[in-house]
């Protein structure tokens, strides 16, 4: 019970209400003590009226008046004369004097607490103003034991009443908070549990119903989270299905390309100059296609191998990328060129690096072809003491907002309507495999620039 939110709320509510009652109890008991002494002053004044009516009182009558007033003697000051009106024998000497005419609230509270915690019976003098201005002051002597017992009895009744009020208040407050807050919270928890059983089921997404603003905001946030998670799970399922299909296609395509590779071996022996010039490129393209199919199959098994690092002459690799893309822009006013220092070499996997630059160059070429105004693509390479940097720059229209938001995300970061967005995702993954970083340097109406940064590390040469 105490481990639950409702149980702790009930206990805390009771404690706080009791604390408030205790704070009320202290001044209440001080006021009771003051009223008790004022009543004794008033009784003493009434008793002294009998003496004013008859100067001689029977001793028995005087003792009865003092007993009824619960005092030992009464002194009344009238017309600047101090008169002992009634008197009897006191059991002990006077220990303290209290003047109620000049007592402050703090003084009354302090005196009351002192009396509660001081059980010894004492005789005290109490001074006050007579009622109805029947003199200048009235003074009495009285015992403290009856007053202390009356204060304790009053305090017990106050504490019992406070406990009852605390219990009723705590219960009402608990029931109210339970209805307004705890039940909606439990409803949200129930929704979360049901959603966790089948997160792919969109029917289990919570619908905000809470009337309390904060709880409704929590439900709205939960609905957004559940919606995004459901969509992500569906996307993951579709990707898994697509991966399975691609693996099957890659398996069959590898067999077909292997057969084509046998034919290209014979083409290389041809004496035709045009065939001799194009045959190596055809062989290289088919070899890469076979390697890509094998990599796809390995990736489908979550066993894609890491890069095999070798020293690669970068100028030859850039020229090969540009040469293959030139075949696709023969009928378009698009130029491709490279800017690289002669003899620059990088340490990388040549196949992975070719795929990285080919994907980036192809994306740039497709962006230029989409606007139909021509343009230029530049592959620029340089090195520093710590890294090699390759930039792919185009003069295209820049990336659309959606592509910028979902950059490097498969099936979401495509720049064209029919694009899949896989090119950048693959390039980014391959660059990370080298310990490097693929960065978007800039993209606006004047063009786009991607940078491939490959660290040299301890293996740089």
UniProtKB/TrEMBL annotation:
Q: Which SMART domains match?
A: HATPase_c (SM00387), HisKA (SM00388)
Q: What is its EC number?
A: 2.7.13.3
The protein's topology relative to the membrane is: Multi-pass membrane protein
Q: Main location per UniProt?
A: membrane
If you read the UniProt record, what top EC class would you report for this enzyme, in one word? Answer: transferase
Which InterPro entries has this protein been placed in? 2C_sensor_his_kinase (IPR050980), HATPase_C_sf (IPR036890), HATPase_dom (IPR003594), His_kinase_dom (IPR005467), HisK_dim/P_dom (IPR003661), HisK_dim/P_sf (IPR036097), Sig_transdc_His_kin-like_C (IPR004358)
Reaction(s) the record says it catalyses: ATP + protein L-histidine = ADP + protein N-phospho-L-histidine
One MF term in the entry's GO annotations: ATP binding
Q: Which residue spans traverse the membrane?
A: 6-30, 158-181
Q: Which residues form a coiled coil?
A: 215-242
All copies of the Histidine kinase domain together span 248-458
List GO terms (cellular component aspect).
Answer: plasma membrane
Identify the keywords attached in UniProt to this record, alphabetized.
Answer: ATP-binding, Cell membrane, Coiled coil, Kinase, Membrane, Nucleotide-binding, Phosphoprotein, Transferase, Transmembrane, Transmembrane helix
> Please, which domain of life does this record's source organism belong to?
Bacteria
Q: Where in the cell is it found?
A: Cell membrane
The protein's name: histidine kinase
């Amino acid at each position: 019970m105490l481990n639950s939110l409702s149980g702790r709320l009930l206990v805390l509510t009771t404690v706080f209400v009791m604390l408030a009652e205790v704070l009320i109890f202290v001044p209440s008991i001080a006021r009771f003590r003051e009223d008790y002494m004022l009543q004794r002053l008033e009784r003493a004044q009434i008793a002294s009226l009998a003496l004013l009516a008859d100067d001689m009182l029977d001793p028995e009558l005087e003792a009865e008046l003092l007993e009824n007033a619960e005092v030992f003697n009464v002194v009344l000051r009238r017309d600047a004369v101090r008169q002992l009106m009634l008197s009897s024998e006191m059991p002990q000497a006077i220990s303290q004097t209290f003047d109620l005419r000049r007592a402050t609230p703090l003084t009354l509270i302090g005196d009351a607490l002192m009396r509660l915690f001081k059980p010894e019976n004492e005789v005290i003098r109490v001074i006050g103003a007579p009622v109805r201005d029947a003199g200048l002051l009235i003074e009495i002597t009285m015992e403290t034991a009856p007053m202390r017992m009356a204060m304790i009895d009053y305090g017990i009744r106050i504490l019992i009443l406070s406990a009852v009020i605390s219990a009723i208040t705590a219960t009402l407050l608990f029931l109210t908070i339970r209805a307004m807050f705890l039940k909606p919270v439990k409803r949200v928890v129930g929704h979360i549990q049901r959603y966790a059983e089948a997160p792919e089921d969109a029917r289990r997404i919570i619908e905000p119903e809470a009337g309390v603003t904060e709880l409704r905001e929590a439900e709205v946030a939960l609905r957004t989270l559940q919606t995004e998670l459901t969509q992500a799970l569906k996307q993951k399922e579709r990707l898994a299905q697509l991966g399975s299909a691609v693996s099957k296609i890659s398996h069959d395509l590898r067999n077909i390309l292997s057969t084509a590779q046998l034919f290209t071996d014979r083409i290389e022996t041809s004496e035709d100059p045009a065939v001799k010039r194009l045959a190596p490129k055809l062989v290289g393209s088919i070899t890469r296609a076979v390697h890509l199919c094998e990599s796809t199959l390995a990736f489908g098994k979550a066993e894609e191998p890491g890069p095999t690092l070798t020293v690669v002459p970068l100028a030859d690799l850039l020229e090969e990328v540009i040469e293959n893309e030139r075949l696709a822009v023969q009928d378009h006013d698009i130029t491709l060129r490279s800017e690289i220092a002669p003899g620059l070499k990088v340490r990388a996997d040549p196949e992975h690096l070719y795929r990285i630059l080919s994907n980036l160059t192809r994306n740039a070429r497709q962006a230029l072809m989409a606007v139909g105004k021509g343009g230029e693509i530049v592959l620029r390479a340089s090195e520093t003491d710590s890294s090699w940097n390759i930039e792919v720059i185009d003069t295209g229209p820049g990336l659309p907002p959606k592509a910028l938001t979902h950059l490097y995300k498969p099936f979401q970061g495509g720049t064209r309507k029919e694009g899949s967005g896989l090119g950048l995702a693959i390039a980014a993954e391959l660059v990370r495999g080298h310990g490097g970083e693929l960065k978007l340097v800039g993209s606006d109406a004047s063009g786009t620039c991607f940078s491939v940064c490959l660290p040299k590390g301890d293996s740089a040469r």
